[in-house]
Specification:
Layout (H helix, E strand, L loop, with lengths): L12 H8 L8 E8 L2 H6 L12 E8 L2 E2 L5 E2 L6 E8 L12 H17 L5 E4 L3 E4 L5 E10 L9 E8 L23 H21 L9 H8 L6 E6 L3 E10 L5 E4 L5 E4 L6 E4 L3
Parallel strand pairs: 1-2
Antiparallel strand pairs: 2-5, 3-4, 5-9, 6-7, 7-8, 8-9, 10-11, 10-14, 11-12, 12-13
Amino acid sequence: MRGVPPPDAPLDAGALRRTLGPPAGPWASVTVVERTGSTNADLLARTGGADPAPDRSVLVAEHQDAGRGRRDRTWDDRAGEGLTFSVLLRPREVAVERWGWAPLLAGLALVEAVGEVTGRSVPAALKWPNDLLLGADPAAKGAGVLAEVGAGQGPERALVVGIGLNVATPAADLPTGGTSLAEQGADVGREAVLVAVLRALADLDARWRAAFGDVVAAGLVDDYRAHCATLGREVRVLLPGDRLLEGRAVDVDRDGRLAVRAPDGDTTVVSAGDVVHVRPAAR
């Protein structure tokens, strides 16, 4: 029987394709490369053209050196320590104006996968909109998600969702405010984590498409709210132009927007694209 590889072992591309790809797996193609600049950029380049990537394509890099987060923040990793991968989706059943839920579904898939591979020994939650928080008192960022829509139109229209997850990253290599599964005491292999995330994301994507993007009918809003650590907390939301919104985060609506109730009772709804960052209010 195949033994469990150590957390920093190279990914077995063949095993991943057999598990996740055709004919029985939920993904159309699974490719693993040793190194690239950005898996998101690579898949965005294949949304159209002479060799378009099919719906539900996966690209995994053992190392990427030009990864990006929201608002062009950098995301770098060392080979064997984390997971950096992107998926290309062509959700024809979902109107483009509802595609903003894709990164939230990716965050939800991360929470579900962490619970599966750790036996729920590591607390996992979401910081709105899609940062994965690991641990407690305090929780720290273990993964980030970046979604981008390709430039194509019609049948070439696609979106790419990139994920960077700290699996075996030691404390010395973690950024301020970051953590990893290993630092939270989870001894899990990267391959097992990747399979769990991609299976969870495929299931959530199928529910989303089956409901034609209606996240309320699909129960996805309720699932997201149940795992969102931002809800119920006093927050400070920094908006462009150094505008500041303070209050209690009270809801995430069907459009994925965060509702913040100010001390005077007025509620303001903000979308992820309009927010620079969300922080807990000072105590």
